[in-house]
Write a structure and sequence with these properties.
This is Aspartate/methionine/tyrosine aminotransferase. GO terms for molecular function: pyridoxal phosphate binding; transaminase activity. The chain is an alpha/beta fold. The chain has two domains: 125 residues, Alpha-Beta Complex (Aspartate Aminotransferase, domain 1), CATH 3.90.1150.10; 237 residues, Aspartate Aminotransferase, domain 2. It is built from 13 helices and 14 strands. A hairpin with a 6-residue loop joins strand 10 and strand 11. The two termini are 40 Å apart.
Length: 385
């Protein structure tokens, strides 16, 4: 096989290997994945079923999204940002939120340019930066008072960047950027001329009454922000594979072209289901889902009291420090599965120098009852062998 420089630093995501090792044993606590057992909105299921039965949406067109969904996304963004997005010029539908990342990177960066990300960050963001030909620059997250915090001083050290690629709440840490964090991001973008690529997939999955802050609400960011969203996390519609990109008109022309040549078109049936979720007057259960994920999160934190687990402020995963337990993250992951029957992913590919110390615990698919013996499983894993 001939060498290919794009893949020199790209690392395997890890969770698929852990899932394969866990197999189908029902006793294994599945904390490695990002599936969820919280059901999708009934309105989305009904709309998708109706579209399948009638054949509506079984088309290649429009290549960048059905008007009804583009309009629904624009309405969703208006409620979050207060901004009016032109659904025909500023919104593009993609095959899931993660599939939107590469077209945005191709449209905003040149090979060799820098993209700033937090450490830890989602491997699907970091490794796409590398595949695009850009270079990651890590902004460390620090543990303060048992919570993750963005190191704002690290932002002042960013001297050149094509983009900042950020998520809040973020996978895998659950860090939530506050208004002062976003103000520091705005200053960095203004100083370097960088775009903000904002992954908003979990924006409303926030715990403990923390305010939900969209960066477009912060002075100086609206005109620089490209927002990536999806129905996968908040709306629990993972299998629909529907996401979107929204941003400045001039840049969206370039992004639209990259989307067309990357994935051609998203499922029309699924787009109609997504539109139903976004326009559902009941809210499609987003707040209820966030409350359920917090119950599970709090159970994990209570179960692991005294161990080096870091609280999340939102999302549906948290991290435990393997190094503080005297193990590498792959070693802890292996011991958890072998002795504790817990599938959990080492964060080897999820950052720079900080992430590889941690193992991720995803509680989106495991109810509180199943999580209630997590401490016993951990203790067994740590003391066996």
């Amino acid at each position: 096989m001939r060498p290919n420089a794009r893949f020199t630093d790209v690392q395997p995501i890890g969770l698929d290997a852990v899932a394969a090792a866990a197999g189908t044993d029902p006793d294994v606590l599945r904390l490695e994945n990002l599936d969820t057992d919280v059901p999708p909105p009934p309105a989305a299921v009904a709309a998708t079923t109706q579209a399948l039965a009638s054949g509506e949406g079984n088309s290649w067109l429009p290549l960048t999204g059905l008007p009804v969904l583009c309009e629904a996304v624009a309405g969703e963004l208006r409620s979050r940002t207060g901004l009016d997005y032109d659904p025909s010029r500023q919104v593009v539908i993609t095959s899931g939120g993660t599939s939107a990342v590469m077209p945005v990177l191709l449209a905003t960066t040149e090979p060799g340019e820098t993209v700033a990300l937090t450490d830890p960050t989602y491997a699907g963001l970091l490794q796409r930066v590398r595949l695009s030909g850009a270079r990651p620059h890590f902004l460390p997250l620090r543990v303060e008072g048992g919570h993750w915090r963005l190191d704002r001083d690290a932002l002042t050290q960013v001297t050149t960047a094509a983009a900042l690629l950020l998520m809040s709440p973020s996978m895998p840490s659950g860090v939530l950027l506050d208004r002062d964090d976003w103000a520091a991001v705005a200053e960095t973008c203004a100083r370097t001329g960088a775009y903000l690529i904002y992954d908003a997939a979990m924006e409303r999955l926030v715990y403990d009454g923390h305010p939900r802050i969209n960066p477009c609400q912060v002075e100086g960011l609206a005109e620089r922000t490209i927002t990536i969203g999806s129905v996968s996390k908040e709306y629990r519609m993972i299998g629909w594979r529907i996401g979107w990109i929204a941003g400045p008109v001039d840049l969206m022309d370039r992004i639209r072209m990259a989307v067309i040549y990357n994935t051609t078109v998203s499922s029309g049936f699924a787009q109609l289901g997504a539109a139903a979720a976004l326009t559902d007057p009941s809210g499609s259960g987003v707040d209820e889902a966030a409350a359920e994920y917090q119950r599970r999160h709090d159970t994990v934190i209570d179960q692991l009291a005294g161990l080096p687990v870091v609280r999340a402020a939102g999302g549906w995963s948290c991290l435990v420090n393997a190094t503080a337990l005297g193990l590498t993250a792959p070693e802890l992951s292996s011991r958890l599965l072998r002795y504790g029957r817990v599938a959990a992913t080492p964060m080897t590919a999820w950052g720079g120098t900080i992430a590889p110390d941690y193992v991720r615990l995803v509680y989106s698919r495991e109810p509180v009852e199943r999580l209630s013996d997590l401490r016993y499983r951990f203790d067994t894993a740590l003391t066996s062998g």
